[in-house]
Write a structure and sequence with these properties.
Length: about 550
């Protein structure tokens, strides 16, 4: 009996292993690809659009997960970003516990949601709060940053090999486990550390740091910057301290990512606690050494195993928001917004993010765990907070794969309502699209005697996205916005709609519903809160 049970167990193991092997053979590893400055996250072999949500900072425990999934379902998000903390996978040095990771994988699959794992290790918003107690409490082995006045700061210093060794070992163990437990690639992306950098000191001023700072700038960094070699101060002058810190944090994070990629080469990114995108700021007033816009190039050179640098945008003023997008949307950096505010006004920005061909968008703190940075954010009906994002995801979810492919292979544009509600123009090649946010659905745009449409009670929330289907044909959707078209260059001609079709995509195939005409096209094409997708064909007359 015993023998046959063992035989059965062995048979089962063989079956499980071979089915895992079959998965591994059949499902390609997620990958970041770039072609002519367009980027895509390939998932299951095709471009994927992340309609994401990030869980709260303490939602990474089995008992919290039931408060996460219903919010993800309500949002129609296709991806959950959630922490995996060093303290929970290696509570004692060398003893690993992946029970939370296994449960997370299993439940994500049940809910048909992909995962972005957030590795909360040496840095979580500058501090080591998510490191295990054996790390937090041993500052002789894992030293903290010492500021210029000799005061010990919360941040761990990036300069000490023991810290790097321990972090990289834990992260590699996690990735090794994910490789074995996730052959179907439920996990599509991994964030390495969280908002690195140091508050309250521009670099480490410990004895070890002082010696290194007096030394030569690494040749790779001088070469990348096109500068002659020298000491940090000789080469970088007044910016030397910040660049020194950024370089060493980048090298540390790169080594952690590299150790993880040896086990499982998933795409990996870092997120950024931003500085003001419009005016210079004292580095003592932000998380110095993190990949802020002034040191993106330092990070690019120092961390080649990091696939992209992603801004966490909590600046709900439309000028600043757009400025940040511009800074992180680069031919050498795929744009992805892994965190943004969850207040009402942030919903509109998904349109300009996607219009830049971004990999995706993911507001922070959208679960039902009743955590909130501001108590006013916990309404009696928690799902109300989700509404602005849910309605946009409802609009975009059915076309997410199609959009991701169009954005990777061709031209896309986007516009979000600004605080001032100013009209915006998009250059579509042979056409200019003018997007207006203050028009109702009826009445020509130049009928100035008509009253502007009032701002939605909770604030500006409009936006549109446009993808090219041909020189004169476009796929368009949006919310609380109107688009008028004019031919370009200016020849005195006007635009006419040859046809405006409403429809939807089913499995990447256009399914016609009906034609818009008359009142529906006499005043441009208008979008309200009702989700609608149109194909527009234009011609001059
Ligand atoms: C940015 C961090 O990356 C998140 O983990 C979270 O702390 C938010 N700030 C704000 O709540």
């Amino acid at each position: 009996m015993r023998t046959s049970l063992n035989g059965f167990a062995v048979g089962l193991m063989v079956a499980l292993c071979s089915s895992a092997a079959a998965w591994a053979d059949s499902v390609p590893l997620p990958q970041l690809v770039t072609h002519q400055s367009h980027h895509a996250l390939m998932v299951d072999g095709a471009p994927f659009l992340i309609l994401g949500a990030q869980a709260h900072n303490s939602s990474n425990w089995p008992a919290q997960l039931p408060l996460v999934w219903p919010a993800i379902a309500r949002l129609e998000a296709n991806t959950l970003e959630i922490p995996v903390a060093w303290e929970q996978i290696e509570p004692e040095e060398g003893r690993f516990d992946f029970s939370y990771a296994d449960l997370l994988l299993q439940q994500a699959r049940q809910h048909k949601v992909r995962l972005i794992l957030l590795w909360f290790g040496t840095w979580k918003n500058n501090s080591p709060s998510y490191t295990p107690a054996w790390v937090k409490l041993d500052n002789a082995r894992f030293p903290r940053v010492i500021n210029a006045q000799g005061v010990t700061m919360p941040s761990l210093s990036p300069l000490f090999p023991e810290t790097l060794k321990a972090d990289a070992k834990a992260f590699a163990a996690l990735m090794r486990h994910i490789k074995a437990a996730d052959p179907q690639h439920t996990v599509i992306l991994v964030q390495v550390e969280n908002e690195t950098g140091t508050y309250g000191s521009v670099r480490d001023y410990s004895g070890t740091a002082e010696k290194m700072f007096a030394g030569q700038v690494p040749a790779a960094l001088c070469k990348a910057r096109g500068v002659k070699s020298g000491t940090w101060t000789e080469v970088f002058g007044k910016d030397a301290a910040e660049i020194f810190h950024a370089w060493h944090i980048a090298r540390f994070v790169d080594a952690v990512a590299a150790a993880g990629k040896v086990e499982l080469a998933l795409p990996m990114y870092v997120n950024v606690a931003l500085r003001d995108p419009l005016q210079a700021q004292d580095p003592l007033s932000y998380s110095a050494g993190g990949p802020t816009d002034n040191v993106i190039d330092v990070w690019k050179t120092g961390a080649p195993h990091i696939d992209l640098i992603a801004p966490d945008i909590y600046q709900n003023d439309s000028t600043r928001y757009q400025a940040v997008l511009k800074l992180y949307d680069r031919p050498d950096n795929a744009l992805f917004v892994p965190e943004t505010g969850s207040e009402y006004g942030y919903g509109r920005y998904i349109f300009s993010v996607l219009g830049r061909g971004a990999l995706g968008f993911s507001p922070f703190g959208l679960d039902y765990s009743n955590e909130a940075n501001d108590e006013a954010d916990i309404p009696a009906d928690a799902s109300k907070r989700l509404e602005p994002f849910a309605s946009n995801y409802h609009l975009l979810a059915p076309m997410a794969r199609t959009w991701a492919k169009l954005a990777y292979e061709g031209d896309v544009w986007g516009s979000s309502e600004t605080d001032e509600r100013t009209p915006q123009t998009l250059d579509l090649g042979r056409w200019v699209a003018t997007v207006r946010y203050d028009k109702g659905t009826f009445g020509a745009s130049d009928w100035t005697w008509m009253k502007p449409r009032p701002v939605t009670a909770a604030g500006p929330d409009g936006g549109v996205i446009i993808a090219r289907l041909g020189a004169d044909e476009f796929l368009i959707t949006g919310r609380m916005a109107r688009i008028d078209f004019t031919p370009t260059p200016k020849t005195g001609k006007h635009a006419q709609f040859v046809r405006v079709e409403e429809g939807k995509f089913v499995d990447d195939r256009w399914v016609f519903h009906h034609v818009w005409n008359g009142d529906e096209t006499d005043y441009g094409v208008n979008f309200t809160t009702v989700p609608r997708l149109i194909k527009v064909t234009l011609a001059p007359y």
